[in-house]
């Protein structure tokens, strides 16, 4: 028989370090870009999870270019909607 002076403290809940939940875009024209970006994220996660080989830049750069293309498309769709801009950055300012 175990006798506790204090009530045992339960372990903390497990917190997953996944990507933040993605909310649906306000403008239906943005849905294809969201789907494309989610697809790119999935491809990057697969590259990262493959521990049998190193991640090569030739695998990542095309995905990076696809992201830039989608950000530029979103920025063009959001002209005049300042509150929905991606933190006010344009893709050309990345480099």
Folded structure, characterized:
This protein has 95 residues and is mostly helical. The protein has a domain at 28-79. The chain is 42% helix and 0% strand. It is built from 2 helices and no strands. The protein has helices at residues 31-49, 57-77. Helix 1 (31-49) packs antiparallel against helix 2 (57-77). The radius of gyration is 21 Å and the shape is flat. The relative contact order is 0.11. Mean pLDDT is 77; it is low at 88-95.
In short:
The chain contains 2 helices and no strands. The chain has helices at residues 31-49, 57-77.
Map the helices and strands.
Layout: H1 31-49, H2 57-77
Helix pairs in contact: 1-2
What key attributes describe this structure?
95 residues, mainly alpha, 2 helices, 42% helix, disordered C terminus
Major β-sheet profile: none
Order of helices and strands: HH
Q: Total strand count, please?
A: 0
Distance between the termini: 66 Å
The helicity comes to 40-55%
């Amino acid at each position: 028989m175990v006798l506790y002076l204090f009530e045992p403290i339960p372990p903390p809940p497990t917190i997953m370090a996944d990507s933040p939940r993605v909310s649906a875009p306000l403008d239906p024209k943005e849905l294809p870009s969201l789907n494309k970006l989610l697809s790119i994220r999935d491809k990057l996660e697969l590259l990262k999870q493959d521990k049998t080989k190193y991640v090569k830049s030739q695998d990542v750069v095309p995905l990076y270019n696809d992201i830039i293309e989608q950000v530029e498309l979103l920025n063009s769709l959001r002209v005049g909607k300042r509150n929905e801009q991606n933190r006010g950055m344009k893709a050309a300012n990345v480099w």
